[in-house]
Amino acid sequence: MWVYEKKLEYPVRIKNCNPKMAKYIITQYGGPDGELAASLRYLSQRFSMPTEETKAIFTISI
Fold it and tell me: I need a labelling partner for 13 at 20 to 30 A (CA). Which of 27, 45, 46, 56 fits?
């Protein structure tokens, strides 16, 4: 059975609210040039490769 504890590894203390910086950070993760978009592009490219050797290049090992 899994137990999920929602806590950070290091404590974070926010002194000031900065909406511009928050928007920038969110776009780096979820925007068109973010990490999530890049990983989804690699995944879709993997399934359209013609040979097994080229598919292995994009295979994500966990």
Answer: 27
- Domain membership of residue 29 as a residue range: 19-58
At 20 the pLDDT is: 93
Instruction: Using the Cα atoms of residue 4, residue 5, residue 8 and residue 10 in order, give the sign of their dihedral.
Output: negative
Count of CB atoms situated within 10 Å of the CB of 49: 14
Which pTM does this prediction carry? 0.41
Domain assignment of residue 7, yes or no: no
What's the total number of domains in the chain?
1
Helix and strand counts by DSSP (H, E) for the chain: 3, 0
